[in-house]
Amino acid sequence: MKKIALIYGVTGQDGSYLSKFLLKKNYIVHGVKRRSSSINTHRIDKIYQDPHEKNKSFILHYGDLTDTLSIKNLIQTIKPNEIYNLAAQSHVGVSFQIPEYTANVDALGTLRILDSIRSLKLEKKVKFYQAGTSEMFGRTVNKFQNEKTNFYPRSPYAVAKVYAHWISINYRESYNIFASNGILFNHESPVRGETFVTKKIISGLCKIKKNKIKTLYLGNLYAKRDWGHAKDYVEAMWKILQYKKPDDFVIATGKQYTVKEFVNLACKELAIKISWRGKGLNEVALDESGRKIIKIDKKYFRPTEVDSLRGDSTKAKKILNWIPKTTIKELIIDMISNEI
Questions:
Q1: Angle (CA) 225 230 233, round 5°
Q2: Strands, sheet with 284-286, edge to edge from the N-terminal-most edge strand
Q3: Cα 55 vs. chain centroid, distance in angstroms?
Q4: Active-site option among 8, 27, 129, 157
Q5: Adjacency order of strands within the sheet including 82-85
Q6: 133 is annotated as an active-site residue
Q7: What does pTM read for this prediction?
Q8: pLDDT 10s digits, 161-179
């Protein structure tokens, strides 16, 4: 008998990759999307176009994590074996502008799913995955962050995710719900959202290469991040729910690069020769002709910066037998190929 999965956030980067992964595992996948005035299903359109999956194993529903009734009704109707909560207002910078909405979706949305499982008495039938983030570590003093590292969130987004993390543990311990947390470090792909820095860099440099724009504007060049590929990370999500008991896992590559280093790697793959000049807000990247193709704009700096994140996924490697397969070079090539 096929397993049934319910994915909140199915139209996002991770939701699209997870849907394809689970369909290959012979799951029936139910995805939840928000009602929008514009079409927002481009990441999953290919699944619909597959004649083997159309109207068979992949079903979309309207819903919203701010609507308790829709959550409860959907879970009651579908009775999924696994629920993946990937839905969120996930942009760190935007969370400073809409903190209340971010908390309502990212924090209370998680609570609504968990309490629906509890109230419907599905504790023994449903496994729940909560998508955590390395941003929860924030201003950490540790060189590497693992499951024992203290949280120090530095944005409304990160604070909301810390609540979601701990309410999952609370419901696990209070009501014996199979609720697991995946603390995922930055993971990118060709379908990454346009406002995220990696996608912005790749898209901007490709446009500069084609002479479609003259300048790419960035914020903090020296923020250090641990970047992996989304296709590797959704496999980790699935492995977390296949483990014999609910638990929490850091998922990361263990390798770290600055935003500036990411730019340099992307430029190398695009055969754009650049040289850096200046410091601080006046730092620029010049191409061979001396044009300033990259400039710094202070509006892209956060009110509170997170300087360095680097994950230690030893536990996941040991217990789940999970390892990241994609190098940062392969990730950048994948993103550039799609952009071109």
A1: 90
A2: 216-218, 292-296, 284-286, 275-277
A3: 27
A4: 157
A5: 58-62, 28-33, 4-8, 82-85, 127-133, 178-184, 248-251
A6: yes
A7: 0.91
A8: 999 999 999 999 999 999 9
How sure is the predictor about 37, in pLDDT bands with cuts at 50, 70 and 90?
Answer: very low
Q: What is the DSSP letter of 308?
A: B
Q: Residue 260, by phi and psi: left (phi above 0), alpha (psi -120 to 50) or beta?
A: alpha
Q: Would residue 215 show up in a list of annotated catalytic residues for this protein?
A: no
Would you tell me how many other CB atoms lie within 10 Å of the CB of residue 235? 19
DSSP state of 295: E
17 is catalytic: no
pLDDT, tens only, 95-123: 999 999 999 999 999 999 999 999 999 99
Backbone angles phi, psi at 84, to 5 degrees: -110, 115
Q: Would you state the structure tokens that stand for residue 306, as one six-digit string? A: 């997170």
Active-site residue (options: 11, 133, 253, 326): 133
Round to the nearest angstrom and report the end-to-end CA distance of the chain.
Answer: 42
Q: Which two tokens stand for residue 256?
A: 């770290």
Neighbouring residues of 338: CB distance < 8 A, sequence distance ≥ 6: 190, 191
How far is residue 22's CA from residue 25's CA, in Å, rounded to a whole number? 5
Instruction: Point out the catalytic residue in the list 82, 135, 188, 235.
Output: 135
